[in-house]
Amino acid sequence: MEESLQIRRFDEIPSAEEFASRIEPNNVPAVFSGCVKDWRAFSKWNVSNGGLDYLQELVGSSVVGAMLSSSAPVFYGDIRSHERVPLPFSAFIGYCKDLLQCGDDGEDSISQLRKHKTVGLSTQHDDHVTGEESPQQIYLAQVISCLDLPEAQGSCSFEFELVPITNAENEEKAQLECLREDIETPAFLEGKVLASINLWMNNARTRSSTHYDPHHNLLCIISGCKQVVLWPPSACPVLYPLPLYGEASNHSAIPLENTNFSLYPMAKSIDEYSQKVILHAGDAVFIPEGWYHQVDSEDLTIAVNFWWRSDMMSSMSEHMDAYYLRRILKSSVFSYLCSVTRVSKCFIGQDRMLCKPSSTVDSKEITASGQSSNGSRDQDLDLKHRAAIAKGNEQEFSLHELEPHTLKSLHELVSLVHHRINQNQPVGSISADQSVSSASEEDEVKKFVKTNIFNLEEDPIANIVWNLEPCAFQSVFLTMAHNFPRTLETLIMHALSPVGAEVLTRKFEQMDKMTAADHGSQFYQKFYSVFDNQFSAMDALLNGKELFARQAFNNVLVQYLGSNLDSPKPSEE
Which candidate, 458, 543, 471, places its Cα nearest to that of 513? Predict the structure, then answer.
């Protein structure tokens, strides 16, 4: 975990100014010890000190939404497994008291509580509960607000209750306003426009599925204990979020138990990105928007949370959404950090597909500066090539002038191009003095369909090019242009994969940074001179790069949004 993402713990409660300037803008969770110990709720709602009786007397007549779920004690975001029924808050308090009694008797509190639940609900809601043998467990839940409906249904409650105490966007949703006097808004939230304040209460041990919220969140523990595991938004790829178009898009698809790593291979790295905090009564944790979190709650835990919109989201204008979306997606394509093979400076939008190439240069030949020990001779040869181009003297492009490792790379490239073409072409092999552009052979070459290879380690041609230093790269392709022009043409027009096109153009960029403009112009003049149609060659390179970028874009959609460009449309299935 990066140091900048480490969770901080504060023993002293920050001021509003300190929170707004030093904590909230960092978008990193923070724990505040003893944050709510001065609340009246901290003493009045204490389960071990008559808190249940107090709550029952205060708000027992309120009716809240209850959900029946077969996945208890784990609550997953998919609402297809839930059934919503109304339930008096006093009935829920009764279930909590039953749990206390069953626990004291040493009996199976869950099975006993299940009997009480089904009998009690069958009397009043025969349409929803079928009888004592029902395998479902009950919890209370309430949609937060109309504005947050898509996320709220996916992230509200998990085997316990979420009921708005106050709701700035819909007063009718705030059913427990009478509890507001027992709660104090922390001083460091002064000036925040709160979306809602919610009560969370569970009767038995519960687990939430891993999810994120669309608001900043301050979770305050009144009674009991919670364990919160957190992941930064950048860990999204290893968490496999559900599709963006789904009703539970803010939830991870990974089950909390018995993870199938063949289905979710990157989940093996899930612990590398996680941080765990234990919250006791009186503590609070700031969970920034977008941070994934999974919560385990002990029996009879009561919490209150505050939701508010971040400054960034509040300042975003709706008419700019399309622009922001395109900018973010484009940025993600180029900077999506490697989540499977943790290689320095490798990323998966595009660059994870360029990870771990097998080097064609012996490591002993690399100097401390990172250059090949033969680099000086390659540079000398490069100067000779430039002079030869300027003079038009093609005799200077001699194979014997190349360094052994550069010559080896050239021969490997030529051999691989011939092999790749010959796999699809019954005509004889291509040599330096044999043109593949004759009528019959050209027709055969055009039938060749390039393999859509997108990972560097799967493409030996791209691998060789990737490992060439700029000077050696220039020498190889100038020599190829002179001695093997038809092979170079075939490489670019017919044998270059998408990852090969990306690698080749990146090498062009590296070379340009080390070469004067006039010398670079001479290189490209010689390079493109082998093509009958230079624009077709450029088009082939650009098409390959765009195919590579499309695959990178698709990787981003799959890993960040759970969507796939290549998924068949309903009409195609």
Answer: 471
**What is the maximum alpha-carbon separation in the chain?**
100
List all residues 6 or more positions away from 522 whose beta carbon is below 8 Å from its beta carbon: 386, 389, 390
Backbone angles phi, psi at 527, to 5 degrees: -60, -50
Give the three-class secondary structure for 199: strand
DSSP H or E segment with residue 307 = strand 301-308
Give dist(CA 382, CA 385) in Å, integer. Answer: 5
* Residues 507-551 pLDDT 10s: 999 999 887 776 778 899 999 999 999 999 999 999 998 888 888
CA distance 485 to 32: 69
Nearest to 92 by CA among 158, 141, 164: 141
- H or E stretch at 75: strand 74-75
Q: What is the 3-state secondary structure (H, E, C) of 482-533?
A: HHCHHHHHHHHHHHCCHHHHHHHHHHHHHHHHHCCHHHHHHHHHHHHCCCCC
Query: pLDDT tens-digit profile of 550-572?
Result: 888 888 788 777 777 776 654 44
Pull the structure tokens for residue 533. Answer: 């149609």
Phi-psi region of 240 (alpha: psi -120 to 50; beta: other; left: phi over 0): left
Provide DSSP, 471-485.
Answer: HHHHHHHHHHHHH-H
Query: Which residue blocks in 14-108 are alpha helix, DSSP H?
Result: 16-18, 40-44, 51-59, 89-105
Q: Where are the beta strands (DSSP E) in 192-300?
A: 194-202, 206-208, 216-223, 225-231, 275-280, 284-287, 292-297
Q: How many residues does the chain have?
A: 573
Q: How far apart are CA 537 and CA 504, in angstroms?
A: 13
Q: Which of 346, 382, 360, 369 is nearest to 511 (CA)?
A: 382
The answer to whether 523 touches 483, Cβ cutoff 8 Å, is: no
